[in-house]
Amino acid sequence: MAFCYKEIAAILKQAHCIDQKCELFGASRHQYKLNPPINAEVARSVEETYQFTFPEDYFQFITQVANGGAGPDYGIMPFEDSLMSGAYNNFQEAYKRSLKTPFAPRPMLPEEAESSSFSKEAYQQTPDKFFIYEKEDDAICDTDGFFVLGTHGCQWDFGLVVSGQRKGQIFTTDNEGAYFFRAYSFYEFYRQWLDWLSDKENVQKELAMWHKLGQKK
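-> structure tokens emitted (217 positions)
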């Protein structure tokens, strides 16, 4: 499946007409706008330099639709920002080199769920969607093969697996080694958000909830 810029732009325009002040969570940052796509050669150069390939749906999105912008919560990061995510201080090169190494998390154990940043109730409902990524003691980067796409806020990020058997899948992480499976592909992940956003009633209800919360403060 391929993304259609005109369809996405129409959904964003409709949502922005309802949420004109960008009051929904994260909307103040992305403002329902899409960044211009990047040249495909830029992404291909990164793949060649660091010896991995991006899933085709994400590649098509950033080169034909948008280099980040409007998306779930605070939106999709621009490609160049994602390249720096997870790379702290002087370790930016190490982070990019780590993307070729397979992302291979293991299932989260019940006792680990007790101390996880994720809710125990959520784990009990779908334990098969929760994982732990154990890095080696001398590893510079927190996670191999995991390309951060955006943030839910605070410590919570979401990202795309670019290497290994889970390549193409989307996970949410607490950035402390715990991961929650979100979607089998970037297309599925972004499509779910678009489908929710395209429903006027969803947006109106969410906006009313934020207004109500604002009145209580």
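The beta strands are 106-107, 130-132, 146-153, 156-161, 170-173, 178-183.
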